[in-house]
Amino acid sequence: MTYRAPVEEFLFLFDHVVGLAQVAETKRFAEATPDLTAAILTEAGKLCRQVLAPLQRAGDLHPARLENGVVRTPPGFAGGWRAIAEGGWVGLAAPAEHGGMGLPQTLAAAVHEMMSGACLALQICPLLTQGQIEALTHHASDALKALYLPKLISGQWSGTMNLTEPQAGTDVGALRTSAVPNGDGTYAITGQKIFISWADAEFMENVVHLVLARLPDGVPGTGGISLFLVPRNLPDDEGRPGPANSLRVVSLEHKLGLHGSPTAMMEYDRATGWLVGAPHKGMAAMFTMMNNARLGVGMQGIGVAEAAYQKALAYARDRQQGRTPMGEGGIVEHADVRRMLATMKAELFAARAIALSCAVAIDMATATADADWSARAAFLTPIAKAHGTDIGLEVASMGVQIHGGMGFIEETGAAQFLRDVRVAPIYEGTNGIQAMDLVGRKLMDGGEAAWRLLEEVEQAAEAARPVLPDLAEEVWAAAESLRETTEWMLTQEPNDRFAGAVPYLRAWARVLGGHAHLAAARAEGGTGRRTALARVFVSRLLTEHGALLAQARSGAAGLYALSADDLAA
Amino acid sequence: MTYRAPVEEFLFLFDHVVGLAQVAETKRFAEATPDLTAAILTEAGKLCRQVLAPLQRAGDLHPARLENGVVRTPPGFAGGWRAIAEGGWVGLAAPAEHGGMGLPQTLAAAVHEMMSGACLALQICPLLTQGQIEALTHHASDALKALYLPKLISGQWSGTMNLTEPQAGTDVGALRTSAVPNGDGTYAITGQKIFISWADAEFMENVVHLVLARLPDGVPGTGGISLFLVPRNLPDDEGRPGPANSLRVVSLEHKLGLHGSPTAMMEYDRATGWLVGAPHKGMAAMFTMMNNARLGVGMQGIGVAEAAYQKALAYARDRQQGRTPMGEGGIVEHADVRRMLATMKAELFAARAIALSCAVAIDMATATADADWSARAAFLTPIAKAHGTDIGLEVASMGVQIHGGMGFIEETGAAQFLRDVRVAPIYEGTNGIQAMDLVGRKLMDGGEAAWRLLEEVEQAAEAARPVLPDLAEEVWAAAESLRETTEWMLTQEPNDRFAGAVPYLRAWARVLGGHAHLAAARAEGGTGRRTALARVFVSRLLTEHGALLAQARSGAAGLYALSADDLAA
């Protein structure tokens, strides 16, 4: 059983659901023709199946470890990284002037999903490196760009993101790492950072850390934070890695999953760094990296869901257990197993469509500089991240369930998906934070982005009525209820919004998922397997939106009627 | 942070929600006075906190292992078992004539929940031993009872359950293990069994296996299966363990969780066994053990949920991250964290009330031999098992989420709960099988047991109207919808029932949970922390029942509109 990259599915979504054509019609992304797109996804699919998927279990069995200060990665990971780098995959969406391919983020997102399904522990490394490329492209000086971007884009060097400190996780503003000017344009960075993914690797020529720290005149809180580039080895002007910087990996974490990915505590002791962006504007620069990473983490959830689904389906088709009302056959013929598999597939399709819609909005914003596209990308990012990772967790858990007792045995591999993906709803901003972002910052425009999306959903539903009257009505009605709840949200105090943020975000995912399924069903003329899947989604998943919206409007008072002592009683 | 046994909560549920008083009013359980009940739970709570909880992490770090045929258990487990045995906890509900305490199963269920919260990997051993005591009590010959029961009840010996074979899991009828009469009243048992929990332990004086096997004249399928008692060491007439039987532990599984519990593949090679119950009636005897174990597994889920909740709450009260709209404080002051904690607590209360109601019905059936109580116990068992374990998984996962990045680090301990409990929705009949049992066998009485339960829910809701009109109305209305869907179920073909079985079971859990919360709120006069929690349950969880019932009525056709090939496309 090997991971099979869902290339056809991506191409279908591009053509019929998320509208990649409009991206290819822009001058910026004119190269992204259907032929090139198909060729690229096919190539990436081969890499994932042939090179990366075989590393998945090895990464779990041979965790990254720290030996005399050197981070040793699992057998095969060095070769896997080399294949990713040499294939040009790190620089897929990076600027051509520094060696990238300049292709749409939508393609990069699809490739990230496939790499995540094949070997999540390794995929984190190119994902973070791409985020760093994005941040440097937008915020670094020309000198830094010229020196670092080619190395990162070619995959000779990799990039990390250093935000968290023991007392400063979600509350980044509480960080204590300091940056003191050295007087020569560089800064001395001192402090401890935790949860640093791919902080180092024995096979990496150099590792470039982006570190949030506070300048001496930085005010407390997020307003006083600046971003610094801190390489492991100080490069000369030609980009040859030179002397070791004053930083080290203190320890690696022992984690529930992602054993192949080294997660480090880092210590910076007057390490030499360079300012990226303006002083005290580190959060803005970091958010460039984070937003890219948030969509990428959403793709991680979806990729793991795809792999877990494939594995569970293969098992269910093969495993014989008793007769069913439908006759002999694998356990896939049992109604409840089929319910789980159909649910998994319907969720997967919806989450993937939502995430790729987000990617298309990002590309359109880049290509057109249109504020509406930026607003849509910003609105969809927390949904893509939170819902993609929620689905990752749920589908991986259902995958374990379908395997029965074998699911609990590590050799089977189903459990690894669950362990690996469990962090995705947590990192890059917990899913609770994503939901708060949605009902807070992302509705600050008075709901503009929301109204535009809902209008699109409703118009598409109207257009689908002649072909699929029942499905169209359900999607239309769900969008209407979501509109009402969005109006309600806009009139509420922040904490009442926050108290309903998570179910509100999921209600969006339900409506947007229904919209995507409807588009797919229409594309096949309202009859066929995609229509059947759309009916499963509408009858079994979209139907949750009423309860979700009721939960979204529950308000905070009921939660605070229970004191913390009451919760402990 | 140590596990704190929720003794007060049990006593409240006994008094105000599940009606333990009626059990104590029977002649059979007259000893179970409120004083004795409180004393017993307090003692058990001490054992769990002081002796068992400290073993939880050691069991994870030092998995059980097989060395030269000997099963070595984690450090401290031998002492833990001794404390359980010497405290008389194995025989709490066992017949007094063989050394048990003869107390209600309701108390045993509460004790099992506490032991599960403290150290699930070890708790499995007394749980299975009690199931075996139950099976032997009902089905074994007097000679077997006299020889084995005192040893099992005292905890000198332990018991296992041997059903599964590689090709025969859910489909037990496919088993191949054979039993051939030796001519002296014993049988030669030959075959392989897998997933045998606590198959052996270096500290156990003897281990007694209950093995399903087929006699030479046994027909294919479940109708030809008989049950055999097969001790590891053949005892003499005084119960001194003698020569080794012809059986062995072949290997131990490497599992996602429950590392401390040895899960074995067993080989029987003409091992000496004794028939338990009538020839070819093994399934009936095994079901006695399974039903007991099913409630016990439900308690496992609830126990782990309680422990995971306690840990997450302690972290959320301690962990400071930023200001909230409610001012400074731990992250428990953030609305979304509070939403998760309140949800966990509300779920926990409901699942515990349902499981204890099931236990009370079992006790009333035992004490009164009333068929209505038996029917209620039978009806509630799959709900208690499936919902208790679903909640265990969901609460453990939310516990990880509340811990943020720390939740993914194994040292924190939050992840272990998730890993350990993941098997509970799978073993003793998957939760899908439980749901099929509910809509199949358990509705075969034409819904009698269901109608009686719904009537009770509706009557209680009517009675609560003067005090809590809004909550009472919600619970009443939900019960009415459930009644309609139950009527619908009774008219459907099996596969249409099965296609909606899982959401139907959960809808029952929502309604019965609302019923329990309403009883708790009434008990405090409709104002106070229990009422606040009831409001959280009704507004955020009971509200799901509409969608659940719609899913329950979706039918099979929509699922089979997707062929297995469509699922793979």
From TrEMBL, chains A, B:
InterPro entries: Acyl-CoA_dh-like_C_dom, Acyl-CoA_Oxase/DH_mid-dom, Acyl-CoA_Oxase/DH_mid-dom_sf, AcylCo_DH-like_C, AcylCo_DH/oxidase_C, AcylCoA_DH/ox_N, AcylCoA_DH/ox_N_sf, AcylCoA_DH/oxidase_NM_dom_sf
Its EC number(s): 1.3.99.41
Start and end residues of each Acyl-CoA dehydrogenase/oxidase C-terminal domain: 281-438
Acyl-CoA oxidase/dehydrogenase middle domain location: 161-270
Keywords of the record: FAD, Flavoprotein, Oxidoreductase
Record field: catalytic activity: 3-(methylsulfanyl)propanoyl-CoA + oxidized [electron-transfer flavoprotein] + H(+) = 3-(methylsulfanyl)acryloyl-CoA + reduced [electron-transfer flavoprotein]
Protein name: 3-methylmercaptopropionyl-CoA dehydrogenase
Annotated source species: Rhodovulum euryhalinum
